């Protein structure tokens, strides 16, 4: 709404309604968080656990606006907690009287956990953060009395589990916000975007820029869907039963979008190198598919139309092929088989979408299609080194100064160095959280010494704490202030240190506060000194290299399941790099260009290898195809003009071999088409390959064999 | 049934063991219900799931009395 045009009454009412709904959600979230905080606190006091604050703090750490997220976090937290407890017991048992070794082992464990956290996205990384945190909260307080470690471990586990249980139940029952709804919305949007884009493009080729943008969106959709899927399975038993269907649908989405892109790159190339007529014929072949996709939602009728269109396709292709200039029949056949591959994949994608909506078209047996992530171990090693250094620094300071609050500083450093190891720009993030934390501690000071001293009994305790929590948790629900709110809530919950009976000791309170700020400061310092790999040019180069070596993977890895692995690792790597580059920058453009090339060539290689495996080829052709596949793998792994020439020569040789081979092998035409597609991709003067092409070859017309 | 059970030298409350065992049973039932879409017939599935678990746990915990 702009200030000039006066809003109508209806628009005003709608805006007000939207505002109220958003606020309502935020306040329901505050209610859930406060409810679980106080129930956990009350139960822990009722059960006479020594540190009720740990249970209450847990509910704050796992707070999330969607209930499936809390359940997912809690599930992994249980594992993290148990692993951390084991580590704490082992470390204390090994070095009960050696503070240097003890703290060294502790630093190493926490560092390894932080490194592990960077390897996983989603809430699996949480398990690692908590494994480090739990080990610290169990072992550090008993450093002077090692014999008490078992008891400490038992109590901390009990308190943590109590907090987890309470927040899981409260978030699942009290006005739950379902991830399922978000997931359904995202899945529908993915389908609609894709279908719209496809229908909009039946008229002709798409410009490369638009294609890149569309690719970006498809990748984002695919990764977002996988993220949501991996949390929704904790929330909803029905979704869990359908999880395999969802994975399969997502994989099919990725396959079909790759084929679609290959097709359009081919059309673009043909139109540029004077094959406009062929491109027209391919578009004519593909048009019935666009017509079949009449309505925006998948239905059985739509599936039937697609099937009909696909069955009519070979005959149509034959008719159109006869009209094409014989010198360009290779181009046409490549395009026609690509259209048919695309049609088959599109049909499968629509089928799994129907399955997801409960139509059950393909039965219960579902192919396993895992979404494989692309991980970078160097980044994890860096995070480990940084965290070990942080902990070692604090430990040295602790030992050197004989500071009684050293344990508290280390504890806080443990939480934050794990929690933000995966955040892009962690220095800024941590500083924001630290300010929130400071604010939370000041609020805690006011709360403890000016309010809690005047009250008695649990109901009044609730009344006294509630206003403070409402403010910090409300900040957490605001998108721009959520880091401040997170720090504030954690600082408040941590510093309150509610015990039964409550202990009032301003000196200890202030010392504790200083120690915690110092711990946070050490984390900020080390994030600055050992810059996180995320977002750095070094890691980006590594990730880009990893993306390129996907082609080598496509060229070498064993075939079963390779298609899914290739597509999902590609997306995941790509998504990681994209989320860490500025949109529209030089880096982001070169990345997109490489990603598209990797996608197209890798997929064609996999198809080529499938055909090579399924059908016996003449031995000479078999050998030259293998040679071309290997040369392409080398080219993408270490792109250079020399490797480019070698790859092009190998592909040309294989192509010549395929043309002159005796025509009894069934796979022969397919092999020829795949090779032709790869060759055209290599010669594309708008793709990233143009950097390696000799100047004259780029200008030359591609030679066509008679 | 004894109130505490010795596991590897530590006394563990029998209630905890029953809790974990019932959690396993509950997960089994939950899986079956999810697999065959039985939660269609339930008004508030998450409330129902918690209630089912409470019934399981409480009824087996009565053995300790």
List the helices and strands and how they pair.
The complex is a heterodimer of chains A (706) and B (65).
Chain A: H1 9-46, H2 52-61, H3 67-94, H4 99-119, H5 124-139, H6 149-173, H7 179-200, H8 208-232, H9 237-241, H10 243-272, H11 276-292, H12 300-323, H13 329-356, H14 377-401, H15 406-419, H16 426-451, H17 458-477, H18 482-496, H19 506-529, H20 537-556, H21 562-579, H22 586-614, H23 619-637, H24 641-660, H25 668-683, H26 695-699
Helix pairs in contact in A: 1-2, 1-6, 1-17, 2-6, 2-18, 3-4, 3-5, 3-6, 4-5, 4-14, 4-15, 5-6, 5-15, 7-8, 8-10, 8-21, 10-11, 10-13, 10-21, 10-22, 11-12, 11-13, 12-13, 13-25, 14-15, 14-19, 15-19, 16-17, 16-18, 16-19, 17-18, 20-21, 20-22, 20-23, 21-22, 22-23, 22-25, 23-24, 24-25
Chain B: E1 4-7, E2 10-13, H1 14-35, H2 45-61
Structural notes for this entry:
- The complex is a heterodimer of chains A (706) and B (65).
- Chain A is mostly helical and 706 residues long.
- Chain A has 3 domains: 22-177 and 376-529, no CATH class; 179-356; 537-699, Methane Monooxygenase Hydroxylase, Chain G, domain 1 (Up-down Bundle).
- Chain A has 26 helices and no strands.
- In chain A, α2 (52-61) packs across α6 (149-173), α10 (243-272) crosses α21 (562-579) and α10 crosses α22 (586-614).
- The longest helix of chain A has 38 residues, at 9-46.
- By secondary structure, chain B is of the alpha+beta class.
- Chain B has one domain.
- In chain B, 60% of the residues lie in helices and 12% in strands.
- Chain B has helices at residues 14-35, 45-61, and strands at 4-7, 10-13.
- Chain B has a two-stranded antiparallel ribbon.
- The N and C termini of chain B lie close together (8 Å).
- Chains A and B meet through α6 and α9 of A and α1 and α2 of B.
């Amino acid at each position: 709404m702009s200030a000039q045009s006066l809003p109508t009454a209806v628009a005003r009412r709608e805006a007000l309604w939207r505002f109220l709904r958003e606020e309502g959600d935020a306040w329901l979230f505050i209610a859930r968080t406060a409810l679980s905080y106080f129930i956990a606190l009350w139960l822990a006091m009722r059960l006479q656990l020594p540190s009720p604050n740990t249970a209450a703090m847990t509910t704050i750490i796992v707070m999330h606006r969607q209930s499936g997220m809390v359940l997912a976090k809690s599930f992994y937290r249980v594992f993290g907690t148990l692993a951390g407890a084991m580590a704490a017991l082992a470390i204390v048992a090994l070095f009960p009287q050696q503070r240097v070794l003890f703290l060294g082992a502790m630093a190493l464990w926490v560092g390894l956990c932080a490194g592990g956290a960077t390897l996983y996205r989603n809430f699996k990384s949480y398990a690692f953060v908590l494994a480090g945190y739990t080990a610290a909260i169990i072992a550090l307080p008993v450093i002077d009395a090692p014999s008490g470690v078992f008891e400490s471990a038992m109590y901390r586990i009990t308190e943590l589990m109590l907090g987890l249980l309470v927040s899981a139940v409260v978030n699942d029952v009290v006005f739950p916000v379902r991830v399922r709804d978000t997931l359904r919305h995202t899945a529908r949007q993915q389908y609609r975007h894709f279908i719209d884009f496809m229908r909009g493009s039946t008229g002709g080729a798409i410009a490369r820029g638009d294609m890149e943008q569309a690719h970006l969106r498809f990748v984002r959709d695919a990764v977002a869907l996988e993220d949501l899927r991996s949390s929704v399975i904790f929330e909803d038993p029905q979704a869990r039963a359908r999880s395999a269907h969802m994975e399969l649908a997502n994989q099919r989405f990725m396959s079909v979008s790759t084929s679609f892109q290959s097709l359009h790159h081919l059309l673009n190339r043909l139109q540029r190198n004077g094959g406009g007529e062929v491109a027209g014929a391919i578009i004519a072949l593909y048009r019935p598919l666009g017509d079949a996709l009449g309505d925006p939602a998948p239905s059985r009728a739509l599936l039937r139309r697609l099937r009909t269109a696909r069955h009519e396709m070979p005959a149509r292709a034959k008719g159109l092929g006869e009209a094409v200039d014989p010198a360009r029949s290779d181009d046409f056949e490549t395009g026609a088989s690509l259209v048919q591959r695309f049609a088959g994949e599109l049909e499968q994608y629509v089928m799994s979408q129907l399955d997801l909506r409960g139509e059950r078209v393909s039965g219960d047996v579902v192919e396993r299609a895992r979404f494989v992530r692309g991980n970078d171990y160097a980044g994890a090693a860096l995070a480990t080194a940084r965290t070990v250094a942080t902990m070692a620094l604090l430990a040295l300071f602790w030992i050197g100064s004989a500071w009684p609050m050293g344990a508290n500083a280390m504890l806080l450093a443990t939480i934050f160095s794990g929690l933000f190891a995966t955040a892009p720009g962690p220095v800024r993030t941590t500083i924001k959280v630290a300010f929130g934390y400071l604010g939370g501690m000041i609020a805690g000071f006011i709360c403890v010494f000016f309010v809690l001293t005047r009250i008695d009994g649990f109901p009044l305790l609730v009344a006294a704490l509630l206003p403070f929590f409402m403010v910090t948790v409300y900040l957490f629900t605001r998108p721009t202030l959520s880091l401040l709110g997170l720090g504030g809530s954690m600082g408040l919950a941590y510093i309150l240190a509610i015990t039964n009976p409550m202990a009032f000791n301003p000196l200890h309170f202030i010392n504790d506060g200083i120690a915690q700020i110092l711990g946070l400061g050490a984390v900020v310092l080390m994030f600055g000194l050992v810059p996180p790999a995320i977002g750095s040019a070094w890691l980006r180069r590594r990730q880009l290299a990893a993306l390129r070596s996907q082609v080598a993977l496509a060229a070498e890895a064993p075939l079963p399941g390779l298609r899914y692995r290739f597509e999902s690792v590609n997306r995941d790597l790509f998504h990681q790099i994209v989320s860490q580059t500025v949109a529209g920058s030089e880096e982001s453009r070169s990345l997109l260009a490489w990603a598209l090339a990797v996608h197209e060539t890798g997929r064609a290689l996999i198809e080529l290898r499938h055909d090579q495996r399924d059908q016996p080829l003449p031995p000479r052709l078999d050998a030259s195809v293998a040679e071309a596949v290997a040369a392409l793998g080398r080219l993408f792994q270490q792109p250079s003009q020399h490797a480019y020439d070698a790859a092009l020569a190998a592909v040309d040789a294989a192509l010549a071999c395929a043309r002159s081979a005796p025509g009894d092998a069934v796979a022969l035409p397919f092999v020829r088409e795949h090779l032709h597609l790869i060759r055209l991709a290599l010669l594309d003067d708008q793709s990233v390959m143009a950097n390696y092409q000799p100047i004259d070859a780029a200008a030359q017309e591609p030679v066509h064999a008679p | 049934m004894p109130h505490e059970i010795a596991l590897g030298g530590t006394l563990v409350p029998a209630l905890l063991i029953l809790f974990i065992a019932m959690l396993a049973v509950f997960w089994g039932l939950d899986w079956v219900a999810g697999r065959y879409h039985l939660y269609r017939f339930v008004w508030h599935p998450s409330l129902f799931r918690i209630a089912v678990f409470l019934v399981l746990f409480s009824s087996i915990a009565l053995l300790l009395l």
